[in-house]
Amino acid sequence: MAPLLLLLVVAALNLAAVSCGGHPAPAVSALPVNSLSVKACTVDGLAARCGTLLVPEDRLTRTGRAIPVRFVVIPATMAGRAPDPVVWFAGGPGGSAIDGIPGEVSLLGTLNLHRDLVFIDQRGAGQSNPLACPAFPGLADKAALRAAVRSCLARLHGDLRFYTTAMFTDDVSQLLGDLHYARADFVGISYGTTAEQVFLLRHPGQVRTLTLISGTPLTIALFERRPGNAQLALDHVFGLCQSQPACHRAFPHLAADWAALWASLGKSPWILPAAQSPTGKAERLDQDTVAAMVYQALYDGNIGPIPVVVHTLGAATDKLAAWVSVARAFPAASGGASSANQMMRYAIQCDEPWESYRPAALSDQRGSFYYQTDLESARWWQYVCSLIPKSAAAAGHEQPTVSTVPLLAFNGAYDPVEQPRNWAGAQKAFPGSREIALPGQGHNTTSSWDVCAGPLTQAFIEQAGVAHLNTGCLAAASAPPFDLTQP
């Protein structure tokens, strides 16, 4: 599942540091495997307990390297502490639950009044023996790509075969037991929702409730339906604009504007000379660039500028002048920085069924603006995964079964990857579940969290069920207004 939204960093965790540069020092400790170390600390100004659980990297034979699993517990702030803590699963794969604590505590809100909050860095990420490498090249030079992958694997201080979702959830299960929590309420975002479901399969007795933010059932090959989901999200934006009188008046032929823009770029890219470019450098606008810009806007839930940008570019007679005006009005549309090359992600994406990414599986989605981008990505992953060692047994291949554990799922109505439609039929597997589509939200659903999703999560966990949730607040969590001003 895609990469994630909580970017704040904890200033001081009072935890031992690991070496930088993508090659952490080997995990070495005089303490025996399975030993638990906990000490008082302060995290983001909050009194907490910080600790390490040493676990065997190879949970199958329990021999070889020991690795640290880092965690932070923020105790309940009021008397009458409930026995079940809230455990946060970060996104990624590769997100650090500990580094994101300031934003996560804000997100979980009043749950901390009567429940401990538990944050755990997944093995291979954050401060739990992180495994990272420099970015790999593209598929155009297979020899260079192959050499980069092999060089990376040779220098890793970890065996990727044991950095699966299943082994991560086994670490969590052991840690919760060692901390004397019999059951827990799990809240996860994006990939974290996958980890929640795998935990439920492997350790059902430890689960009280599951809250899934921007997730998809394990039975869905998520990325193999992404082109269709991305197009559906964009169509929703066009439909929303046409349903609003002001937006419809401003852009009465939005779908036609998009078709004209897409066809023009398909014939030849637009080249903006350096002398005309706002950046002072020659720029190229093609279908891949536009697809990436639109996808990111949908992902972030930043749909406000989409109609005016599409209309300005699609309906303009002077294409370059239109491009210059859009670039000046919306400079952020040029994209953001790439994320770290977290290697534990490869153990997961290359072998776990829910991350299946076969190029052939995309063929029925050629009508999507994101089809070609996804096809190229799938081909890259197909090649790279042929170089990654296969994950060990217990890699998370369990078949989901019917569970009566209460489950609440939130998905953004404009999410281009985890569309609400992914939950169609999920109640057969989760009869105690409810999926709620958040209006105007993309994959990053937290912009209106306090308005609706936060209070609903609070009520759901308190009552451990979905039967009496009042979703009237959804009306207040409306889509952001469209920008109707021509650049």
Structure characterization notes:
The strands form three sheets. The chain has a nine-stranded mixed beta sheet with strand order 1-2-3-5-4-7-8-12-13, with helices on both faces. It is globular and about 70 Å long. The protein is an alpha/beta fold. It starts with 35 loop residues before the first strand and ends in a 24-residue tail after the last helix. It has a domain of 264 residues: Rossmann fold. The N terminus is likely disordered. Helix 3 crosses helix 4 and helix 7 crosses helix 9.
Give a short summary of the structure:
This protein is an alpha/beta fold and 487 residues long.
Distance between the termini: 34 Å
Low-pLDDT ranges: 2-30, 333-338
Numbering strands along the chain, what is their spatial order in the largest sheet? Answer: 1-2-3-5-4-7-8-12-13
Query: What is the number of E strands?
Result: 13
Summarize the amount of helix as a percent range: 25-40%
Give the SSE string: EEEEHEEHHEHEHHHEEHHHEHHEEH
Major sheet attributes: 9 strands, mixed
Strand proportion, as a percent range, falls in 5-15%
Total number of helices: 13
The CATH class label of the domain at 36-220 and 398-476 is Alpha Beta
CATH topology-level name of the domain at 36-220 and 398-476:
Rossmann fold
CATH superfamily of the domain at 36-220 and 398-476: Alpha/Beta hydrolase fold, catalytic domain
Q: What's the shape? A: globular
Cα-atom radius of gyration = 23 Å
CATH architecture classification of the domain at 36-220 and 398-476: 3-Layer(aba) Sandwich
Kindly report the average pLDDT value.
Answer: 89
Task: Please state the structural category.
Answer: alpha/beta
